[in-house]
Amino acid sequence: MKIIRDISIAQNTILKRVPGGSADLPSHVKGRILEAFGEQLTADEVVKKIIGRVRDRGDTALLEYTQIFDGADLDRLEVPKSEIVAAKETVDSKLLGSLQVAAGKIEEFHRKQREKLPIGKTELGDGVGQIMAPLERVGVYAPGGTASYPSTVLMTVIPAKMAGVDEVILATPPRHDSHIPPLTLAAAEIAGADRVFCMGGAPAIAALAYGTESVPRVDKICGPGNIFVMLAKKQVFGVVDIDGLQGPTETVVLADESANPVSCAADLLAQAEHDEMSSAIMITTSMSLAENVSDEVDRQLVELERSSIASKSLEQHGAIVVTGSMDEAIDLINMYAPEHLCLLVKDADAIVPKIRHTGGIFIGESSPEVLGDYVAGPSHVMPTGGTARFSSPLNVTDFLKITSLVYLSEASFNELGSHAAAIARAEGLSAHARAVERRYR
């Protein structure tokens, strides 16, 4: 891995944020765009075309795009319940047990979170209050296709179910054999998804937002995906709500001289193997650790099944940044606002209060990010692209909404009415004022 010793260079290169969706697409993706659309389009333009066609042509467009992008020839979009139940029986029992353990931890965390919230009607003063209630129908997206991500199914469906959402719909793309991997379906059954649809990418987001002959329209869309999923969520926002714009995954490992270079390298590679556009960055105060970790990354890289992906990720989006002090390192982290922050330092308790912007903090050798990805409990759907400055990981509150209540007494009306009328007349809204004044008469 490259080592950057100049902080200003790090800020203007590896730690520089670019607008979501503006990063250059890999050459093979550009080739597929040209093949599918007959012209070279930006990612935004591709998504706009897809959304328009799905909105106008419904299932027909969905089935066509599934053939084009996934190589799957489907005769229906929804997976029958019987197929979901049967898939669970085909999964290795030990692996199934691990999924159930993970589901239990995720359910426990989000159930306890909900118990702390004022669900239902709450009085908040003299004649005012609120109703906090779950959303009616939510769509969750789990990446798939050539790979299977049962963990994302658990991490999106379970928080929605714990919030009390009436209907949770899972969308995930098929493999070339026109089927969703049994492991994904097993996770859907364990998590309690109400319906599962065989569709992926921007077409799936469009279908959930607008509805089709087969796919019901939802109130909110949640879950991570590639750049096309992220841009599709951005374009349909306002038609439906979204949880955020999760782009390529990213991690920062903050380490000092006490850190184990083997662990540092392993944590970086665990992130880099996701995708060529993933970001794996280490920030350290120790030059000797930086050099050891760089060497260790090279040693571990050749052992990985996805070494070519991890290698490209590290080459394009990874680096080790050496700072002059821990305070300088913390400033860089708060500026970058990473999705994940791993603390491999001797005094983490003193550092945590200084971290203002990150999706999740993973403290010490016993809490690697990988455990957060699968079994710790909090959802692994976290803010990327610097959005941790203002947004949160997926959680129960994403699936709740608040309705304000106003039920003033006659005495309160008599006390407040004249003030409302005065403000209304100052704004030139005489009908507003008269709606109060007529009640006085």
Spans with pLDDT under 50 lasting ≥5 residues?
none
Query: CATH-wise, what's the superfamily of the largest domain?
Result: Nitrogenase molybdenum iron protein domain
CATH T-level fold name of the largest domain? Rossmann fold
Strand order of the largest sheet: 1-11-10-9-12-13
- How far is the first residue's CA from the last residue's CA? 79 Å
Structural class: alpha/beta
Examine the secondary-structure arrangement and name the CATH architecture of the largest domain: 3-Layer(aba) Sandwich
What characteristic shape results from the CA principal axes?
A: globular
Description:
By secondary structure, this protein is α/β, with parallel strands linked by helices. The chain folds into three domains: 3-16 and 248-390, Nitrogenase molybdenum iron protein domain (Rossmann fold); 81-242, Nitrogenase molybdenum iron protein domain (Rossmann fold); 410-440, no CATH class. The chain contains 18 helices and 14 strands. The chain has helices at 7-12, 27-37, 43-57, 59-70, 81-90, 93-115, 150-163, 182-191, 201-210, 227-236, 261-272, 287-301, 307-317, 326-336, 348-351, 369-374, 410-426, 430-440; strands spanning 3-4, 120-125, 128-134, 137-141, 167-172, 195-198, 220-222, 241-242, 250-255, 279-284, 319-322, 340-344, 360-363, 400-406. A six-stranded parallel β-sheet has the order 1-11-10-9-12-13, with helices on both faces. Strand 4, helix 7 and strand 5 (167-172) form a beta-alpha-beta unit. Helix 3 (43-57) packs antiparallel against helix 4, helix 3 (43-57) packs across helix 10 and helix 5 (81-90) crosses helix 8 (182-191). It is globular and about 85 Å long. It starts with a strand and ends with a helix. The model has no long low-confidence stretch (mean pLDDT 94).
